[in-house]
Structures
1.
Amino acid sequence: MEKILSKALRRETLTETEALSLWERVPLQVLAAAADEVRRAEMARLRDEAHLRDEASGAGRETVSDTEVVTWQIDRNVNITNVCVSGCRFCNFHCRPAETEKAWVMPLEDYIPRIEETLALGGDQLLLQGGLHPRLGIEFYTELFAGLKNLFPQLKLHALGAPEVAHIARVSGITVRETLERLVEAGLDSLPGAGAEILVDEVRKAISPAKPSVSQWLDVMREAHRMNIPTSATMMYGHIETPRHIVQHLLTIRDLQAERPACAHGFVAFIPWIFRSEGTQLEKDGVRPRFSPTEYLRVIALSRLMLNNIPNIQASWLTVGAETAQMALHSGANDMGSIMIEERVVSSAGARNSFDADGIRAAIRAAGFTPRLRDQLYRPRPETPQPKIVNTPK
Ligand code: SF4
C-alpha cells in the first residue's frame, strides 16, 4: 500500500488494480491525508502557473488558487424543459412527452427575471439543463442561447450535458461537431458534466437504458475538448454500482482527459455526488441509496489521487450536506461548488440542503480555509453585492 500511495503522491498514474487496493485496504484517514497532500501540491502548482501567466501578461494578479483557498461560485440552475424521452430510473424531474398536463418548456420571457435576479445577487452564470425533448432540435437551442446572450451579453451559459448534445444532434440530423459549433456560435460557454452517472455500460443500461450511451457521452466530451470548450465531469454513485465500477469510471474520465489537445481546457473539475432516491423508480424497485459520509470521503480522496490530470475536485454540499462537504475539503476537494439558486433536479429526489453566500463562506472558513468566489474557469471574481437568497426551488 505504501508503494501505491507514494506513486499517487508523486502524481503518477494508478492502475485499476492499484486504485481498487487503495479503496479496499487503506484506512480513510490515511487515504484522506494523502489526498490532502496532493491537493496542496496541486493548488501550489496552479498558483505558481497563474503567477507566471499574470506576470507575462502584465495584467496583474488574477490567481485564484492557493493551498489554503477554497473556491465557490454563484450561479442559477434553470431547466429548459421537463419533457424527456430517456426516463432514467433515478430521475423524478422529467415527464414523458405524452403527459401533456405536466409538460413544460420554459419561454424566453421567464428566463429574464431569473437572470436579472441572478446578476443582482452577484452571479455570472446560468446552469441550463433539461430533458431530452423529442421535438426540440438545434434551432430551438441556438435561438434560446442567442436570445439570452442578446439580452445579457455578460452572462455565461454553462449549458447542456453530453446526453442532451447527443440527443439534439440526433433530432436535428447533424453531427455532434456541428451541434457544438452552432451552440458555441449562439452563446454556449462551457459544458457541464451531467449525465455521466457511472460510465460503465452494464450500470448505465440498468439505471438509464434509454439515455445516450457511455460511448456517446465520451464522444461529445472528446469533441468539446478538441474545440477547447471547457467542461466538467461528474459521477453519481451510491445505487447499484460496485467499487470496481467507481474505479473504472475514474479511469475513463482520466483517460479521456489525457486525450485532450495540449493547452485545451478539457475537464476543469470533477464532481462526484450521491444518488438521492426519494420517490424514484429505482427506489420503487428496491434500490436504496448507499450513502455514508465516510464512503463519500473515500470517493473524494480516491478521485484526487487517481485524477492526476484534473485540477479541481468539488465537494457536493447539496447531496451530502455542509458538514460532510467541509470534511471533503480535508480529503482532497478544493472547491465548494455553487450556491445553486433554484436547483430542482436533485432536490426533487430528496436533497434538502441549502446554502446562501454567507453560509457557504462561513462553512469554508469553519473548515479552516479562505473562501474565494470564482467563475467557471476558476478565476477570481469580486464579491459584491452580498447575495441573500439561494437554492429556492420555484
Ligand atoms: S436525468 Fe435527464 S435524461 Fe434522465 S430522465 Fe431525467 S431529465 Fe431525462
2.
Amino acid sequence: MQYSCVDCGLNGCRRPDGQHPAFCPAEGFDLEHEPWLGERLADPENRRVVEAAAASAGTAFDNKLSRLEETVLFAKGIDARKIGIAGCVSLASEVRNAGKVLRAAGFEVVGAICKMGTITHADLDLHVGRKPDSVLCNPIYQAQVLNKEQTDLNVLIGLCAGHDTLFIKHSEALCTVLAVKDFKYDHHSVLALR
Ligand code: SF4
C-alpha cells in the first residue's frame, strides 16, 4: 500500500515547523527547487487567483463567513464582472437565490441549468436502466453556453458527480463549487465523512 496524505495524522504541513511522517509525499519540497511551480505561481493569471483566494479564505476564516459570502469576496478579488451559474434543476430555487445574491453584489449573472437542451437517453442511445425519454444532464452544453457568454467565473451548484467533471473540463472560465449534489444528505456531502 502506498501511504500518503490520506494516512497522515500529523498534518504538519499546516505550520513551517510542523512534523511530517516519513512517507510524506512533500518530503524534501523546497520552492527554490521547483522552478516549474515558481513559474506558474508567478504567472499573472495564477497570481491574481492566489492573492484573491488567500484574502477571501482568510476573511472567511476570521469572520466565519458562509461559502456564498466567501465566493462573493473571491469573485470581487479577481475583478470578475460576469458570473456564470452552472446549476442542477433539482436545486433550481437555490440557483435563483444565488442569482439574486450575486446580482445584488454587483455582478452580471447568467445561469445554465443541467437539463438545458433536453436531450434524452434515447437521443444518445444510452441504456442505463432509465426510461428512453428521461432527460439527461448536459454539462458540456452548460459549459458551452457560459463560454459563449464569456463569464469570468463559473459557480457550480449541485451538479452530480461526473457531470461536474465534464463541466469543469469544458469551462473556459475558472470554476468554483458552491454546493455539490448529495441525494442522501441533502447536499451536505461532508456528513458521509463524519
Ligand atoms: S503533506 Fe505530509 S504532513 Fe501534510 S498531510 Fe500530507 S503527509 Fe501529512
